[in-house]
Amino acid sequence: MIGICSKCGNHAWDKEIEGNTMQCPKCGNRWEFQKLPLFILTGCSGMGKTTTAQALQKLTEDVVVLDADMFYNLMPHETDADYYAQVEQVGSLSKNIHQSGKSVLWTMAGNIDKINHTYHCRFFEEVHILALVCEEESLRKRMMQGRGITDENWIQGSVDYNEYFKTHTKIGEMCYDILDTEGKSVSQVAMEVCVWLRDKLKGM
């Protein structure tokens, strides 16, 4: 919505961005928008992103909490181009919600490395990413007993992804912070995510 030029009606993803000002390349019309930070809560499958996000919603109204799986369920997800399209929709929806004065926090397991290569990345002040991690034994228990997952390839894929988060500081060019959830309750993890959020939001 905010990307549609009110002068000529140009709705293409082609706007030029400078600070918090947008310009239509077709007619030269310029208008301002709220440029806020975008937040991503990530981690491997089975880590507890959704349950943490649900608890977080009860702790703060500072951000709008959404699940990026909505686009996986609605859109094709076979090719790299499909996943780029999903990430673009995450950005498109976020930039419009930001006009309410609130940032968005998405739960999002994969495609983190694609964010800064999208058109919509330019609409955000910054992108802050927090990865939830735990020990392998705990992760296997969550997946097998908590979610009833028996596919060893799926489990091992999550174990490997979790290990990546623990031993690195970025995916592609996207840096992230780490929150170790080992031995913590859902409410404790949600509270720590809330503290992380508020620290990033200081000075807005």
Question: Main attributes?
Answer:
204 residues; 6 helices; 2 domains; alpha/beta; Rossmann fold; 37% helix
Describe the structure.
The protein is α/β, with parallel strands linked by helices. The chain has two domains: 1-33; 34-201, Rossmann fold (3-Layer(aba) Sandwich). It is built from six helices and ten strands, in the order ββββαβααββααβββα. The strands form three sheets. Strands 5-6-4-7-10 form a five-stranded parallel beta sheet, with helices on both faces. Strands 1-2-3 form a three-stranded antiparallel beta sheet, with no helix packed on it. Helix 1 (49-57) packs across helix 6.
Quick take:
By secondary structure, the protein is α/β, with parallel strands linked by helices. The protein is built from six helices and ten strands, in the order E-E-E-E-H-E-H-H-E-E-H-H-E-E-E-H.
